[in-house]
Amino acid sequence: xxxxIVMFKFNETNKQAHIDKAxxxxxxxxxxxxxxxxxxxxxxxxxxxxxxxxxxxxxFDTQEALNAYAIHPAHLKVVEFIKATTEYSKVVDYER
Length: 96
Description:
The chain has 96 residues and is an alpha+beta fold. Helices cover 42% and strands 33% of the residues. The chain has helices spanning 15-32, 63-71, 73-85, and strands at 2-10, 38-43, 54-60, 86-95. The protein has a four-stranded antiparallel β-sheet. Helix 1 runs antiparallel to helix 3. It is globular, with a radius of gyration of 13 Å.
């Protein structure tokens, strides 16, 4: 099984609204992307200086399934929104 984790740091402008919209868009991927086995979405509540604002943990059967997710039109729409509203993101992919 492949685990794909991404953490996002959002811009300060309309931050909470953008986090909420991104959360909904990401949640909708569970119904749109057939290769996506599961998605867990977490919003940070600690607000520490080193905190990220949002994290997703997704699972896939294979690396090929992750690659298919990466280019799926529904995912690309989310990526476009998130790139426009975040400062940066960090990712970790590993095999479990």
